[in-house]
Design brief:
With about 550 residues, the protein is α+β, with helices and mostly antiparallel strands. It contains 18 helices and 20 strands. A hairpin with a 5-residue loop joins β11 and β12.
Length: about 550
């Protein structure tokens, strides 16, 4: 074969192939405390174990001026399929945040939590504490199937419980089989002899890129089923899940100035009975494993595999790998993708509080001691044994399975700690990625800034009598789309410090991409651009018409 015909794999493929099933030199590197970070190869491999090497970018200029190395630290993300924790597990995470991280807990858009600010000497201690709580960080990042998300509250109905269990089953099925995580971080000895180590699903080089799975139970699309590589829409009959519509090819990531990268909403390719859930998921994942682009990581997600080969080809390949082909999709309907905040009571009399967590950050501040409040709730007698703490994919928390006495106690604790539950309708649908100062990819602020912008947009909405109108607004500090901004009714994607692309026109149920309305604009221009659109919406909207739908119908985007 001529040199020009040799396929040049991306560097990450070589790192994975040489890693001895994700071990690399991580044991040695975490033993070197003088270096606060990791080698480049180590930094790639540690992602498979649920961590990123980061640094405090607020400190970069001063440290560079003093000729000091960056203030390296680690972000650790947990694998919690369906987002359900026992109160005791939550209390363990609360302690880890104080003892090993920066004192806060971050609820993510993938229904789990992550810790920031873990210095290298604390990594192993933090992960051992996580392991002691019967949790782990395996495959929360990296080129593998990541945390499997599900419609938020598994206690609302039997179908919701089945969806949560399906998330746990899929997560376990696609968990890497390597023992590297326990050897590197927990201290387990490697077992030698017998059968050679193998990854029966992934192979030695795992997937071309990350892979995300979601499960929705209509009419709620809180998980944004059209935004992930693979999603399942539960078809409920007689109160149980009979099967699932299969959605493939969603993905939010893009790169500014590179039109060959783009966000994409997924396509429904058919229906599978409930007993074929795992088989269908493995068929989709292994098709991506075998045909995904391993030469260009920016072109390696499933959405590009589908667009390269065609949806009909992809469906046929998935069917070829299954014992029975997918059936025609069944009817479904979504009503929206927000969380329903406040108290609800299920058929068994249990109470569930969905509590708004601003951009997912659980912390104590002078004006509101949210972190202390949640810890006090988790320690309530009775609730600590029978309750649950559930993360949502909208970065909120559900305090689940409280009896009436516990409900009253929970309300009292929240009031004592100044944790209010009255938020604006726009704030209900707001979501932001972490961005600065810890994310190395961030071009602009997101988590720290979005509440300020939301308050100013709230003023415009109130001026036009729209304070009670539900509108989805999402912000990211870069185009990678971690807060799923490309399907929001109002999306803001960081371009430069203080500058964003303003996107309009997403659907209220998360089923449609939005469109760039203004490029590279700051706060003043964002507000000036939105004000006349909001005014026109207030005047000309049709009954029940969402903001994103109006901007499409009116030709604004």
């Amino acid at each position: 074969m001529a040199d020009r015909d040799v396929i040049q794999l991306s560097r990450n493929e070589d790192i994975k192939a040489r890693s001895d099933f994700l071990r690399g030199t991580l044991i040695e590197e975490f033993g070197q405390q003088a270096l606060g970070g990791l080698t480049e190869d180590g930094g790639q491999l540690v992602k498979f174990h649920g961590m990123y090497v980061q640094d405090d970018r607020d400190l970069r200029p001063e440290r560079a001026k003093r000729k000091l190395d960056r203030a390296y630290m680690f972000m650790a993300r947990l694998r919690i399929p369906a987002g359900v924790l026992t109160p005791r597990q939550y209390l363990a995470l609360d302690r880890i945040a104080d003892e090993r991280a920066n004192g806060t807990i971050r609820v993510t858009t993938r229904q789990t939590v992550q810790f920031h600010g873990i210095i290298k000497s604390n990594v192993r201690a933090a992960l051992r504490a996580i392991d002691a709580a019967l949790l782990d960080t395996i495959a929360a990042c990296g080129d593998v199937n990541r945390n499997v998300i599900s419609t938020a509250n598994p206690y609302l109905s039997r179908a919701h419980a089945e969806a949560a269990e399906a998330a746990r089953v899929l997560s376990a099925h696609f968990l890497p089989r390597t023992g590297a995580w326990r050897e590197v971080f927990i201290g387990d000895e490697r077992v030698l002899g017998g059968e050679p180590e193998a990854e029966p699903i992934y192979g030695a080089t795992y997937l071309p890129r990350k892979f995300k799975i979601a499960i929705a139970v209509p009419p709620s699309n809180d998980v944004d089923v059209f935004a992930h590589d693979l999603s399942y829409i539960a078809i409920v009959e007689n109160g149980v899940i009979a099967g699932y519509n299969v959605v493939v090819g969603g993905g939010m990531g893009a790169t500014h100035g590179e039109p060959e990268t783009y966000p994409r909403v997924g396509d429904v390719i058919g229906y599978c009975p409930a007993h074929l859930l795992v088989e269908s998921a493995e068929a989709v994942l292994t098709t991506q494993r075998d045909f995904g682009d391993r030469t260009n990581r920016k072109h390696a997600r499933l959405k590009y595999t589908i667009d390269t080969h065609g949806l009909d080809w992809f469906r046929a390949e998935v069917n070829r790998r299954m014992s029975a082909p997918l059936e025609p999709a069944r009817p479904f309907a979504f009503a929206g993708n927000h969380d329903q905040l406040g108290w609800t009571t299920d058929a068994e009399g249990h109470n569930h509080l969905t509590l708004n967590i601003v951009n997912g950050r659980i912390a104590d501040r002078d004006d509101m001691r949210l972190k202390s409040a949640l810890a006090a709730i988790a320690t309530l007698p009775g609730f600590i044994d029978t309750g649950a703490i559930v993360m949502t994919t909208n970065q909120n928390i559900i305090i689940a399975r409280a009896n009436d006495a516990e409900r009253a106690a929970i309300d009292a604790i929240l009031a004592e700690h100044a944790v209010g539950q009255d938020v604006s309708r726009l704030a209900e649908g707001a979501m932001a990625c972490v961005a600065l100062p810890t994310c190395g990819l961030a071009l602009a602020e997101s988590e720290r800034y979005l509440p300020t912008l939301v308050a100013k947009i709230d003023g415009i909405l109130a001026d036009h009598g729209l304070a009670e109108q539900k509108i989805t607004i999402r912000m990211t500090g870069c185009p990678n789309g971690c807060a799923r901004p490309y399907i929001a009714e109002i999306g803001l994607v960081g371009r430069n410090p203080g500058k964003y692309n303003l996107m309009l026109g997403g659907a209220a149920d998360g089923s449609r991409l939005n469109t760039v309305y203004r490029e590279n604009v700051g706060e003043a221009e964002i507000l000036a651009s939105l004000a006349p659109v909001i005014a026109a919406y207030a005047k000309d909207r049709q009954p029940g018409e969402g903001f994103g739908d109006y901007t499409r119908r009116a030709g604004i985007v």
